[in-house]
Design a protein that fits this description.
It is built from eight helices and 15 strands. It is α/β, with parallel strands linked by helices. The strands form three sheets. A seven-stranded mixed beta sheet has the order 5-2-1-6-7-8-9. The longest helix is centred in the middle third of the chain and has 24 residues, at 168-191. The radius of gyration is 23 Å and the shape is elongated. The chain starts with 11 loop residues before the first strand and ends in a 10-residue tail after the last helix. The chain binds one RNA strand through residues 44-48, 50, 53, 213, 247-248, 250, 269-273, 289-297, 299-306.
Length: 314
RNA sequence: CGCGGGGUGGUGGAGCAGUACCACGCCAGGCUCAUAACCUGGAGGUCGCGGGUGCAAUUCCCGCCCCCGCAA
């Protein structure tokens, strides 16, 4: 870690970890709100070889010679953060909850940018839930943090349209850039005291849960449209999968086609490829991947696995 | 040493001790109003690389390279 003094009008500390956070940070770096310190999650072992991998935010911060701090516990880090006499904390998908004592450190408090129209979709997976529910509109909200998760009063909020084929990957990117712009608009007014935080309507709050790998498992008794929404929400991670011959079969891309069904999960022949029955219509896979194999087209897969026709996926 | 699957003609797969089979594609011919078409014939493979054990290895053993699923 280097200790270069970064020139900036304000002493801002940025908390963030993910690619969403990285995009926000990128915008801050190019502005007069360049953070003096970046706090991010510790490196985690990842990949088949368990290599220790730094989070996206750390990579960007180091590239810009901003000091990086990766505490395991924020409570323990309180003193260190307090010594910097911060003006403001900016938090975006950091991954850890900031304890009250930490939130209270900066002169202008801690603000959080959250990718939903709060009080809707509080919690860790707002983007996925907007897609899972088929929302046509979502957005970003900037709040003044309090000790409860995504609960503090709002400073600003802006809508973003969801497009037909948006996935978490594409929508996240859109929201991140949008959120960065919103942040740039909000920051000056907040620091100068022109914004009065606006209490959320807590009676309308909804909550998201952490997405796990198993959320990507397809329940063929659901409707084809619901499965399509799952695909949007769970792309690129954890993706959609089912099981065939005890092997994981990922459905990477597919089409929903109107068709009679009588046995959800059963594979039928459809034109020169195959399709899987759902509760109502059928799903025609385009790109799939069998456990241990590379991704391949449905046609190629069928060349070597004709026997899948008539079988039931679970 | 985290667990596991795999590398076979252009593509996807089966075989797993006696040098290879299936589907698709491709080439030639035929049939059809049409089709996810169909029929007949044909070309195309040093079975990832290097060793070892066998009368004999794509098939067994050892080492290496590459691809991938889980896990995180």
């Amino acid at each position: 870690m280097n200790n270069n003094k970064v020139k900036s009008e304000y002493n801002i500390i940025f908390f963030g970890t993910s690619t969403f956070a990285k995009i926000i940070l990128g915008t801050l770096i190019d502005s007069k709100y360049k953070p003096a310190l970046v706090v991010t999650a510790p490196d985690r072992p990842t990949g088949r070889k368990q290599e220790l991998t730094p989070p996206p935010v750390k990579i960007l911060a180091e590239k810009n010679k901003i000091p990086v701090f990766q505490p395991e516990s924020l409570k323990a880090a309180k003193n260190k953060l307090g010594k910097t006499e911060p003006d403001l904390f900016i938090v975006a998908e950091y991954g850890k909850i900031l304890p009250k004592e930490v939130i209270e450190l900066p002169k202008h408090g801690a603000i959080n940018i959250h990718a939903s129209l709060l009080p809707k979709y509080r919690g860790s997976s707002p983007i996925q839930f907007a897609l899972l529910h088929g929302d046509q509109v979502t957005g970003n909200t900037i709040i003044l943090m309090d000790e409860e998760m995504d609960h503090g009063p709002m400073l600003s909020q802006e809508m973003v349209e969801v497009e037909e084929n948006d996935t978490t990957e594409t929508l996240r990117k859109k929201l991140a850039y949008h959120g960065a712009r919103l942040l740039m608009k909000t920051l000056p007014d907040w620091i100068s005291g022109e914004i009065t935080p606006f209490e959320q309507d807590h009676s309308k709050a909804t909550y998201t849960k952490i997405i796990t790998r198993n959320d990507g498992k397809i329940d063929w008794t659901k409707s084809a449209d619901d499965i399509k929404k799952m695909w949007q929400a769970y792309t690129p991670w954890p993706g959609l999968f089912t099981f065939w011959k005890n092997k994981r079969l990922k459905i990477l891309t597919f089409e929903v086609v109107e068709h009679d069904v009588n046995n959800p999960g059963e594979v039928i022949r459809y034109k020169d490829v195959f399709a899987i029955q759902t509760q109502n219509n059928i799903i025609v896979p385009q790109k799939i991947q069998l456990e241990g194999k590379k991704p391949q087209g449905a046609k190629e897969f069928l060349n070597g696995h004709e026997e899948i026709i008539g079988m039931r996926l679970i």
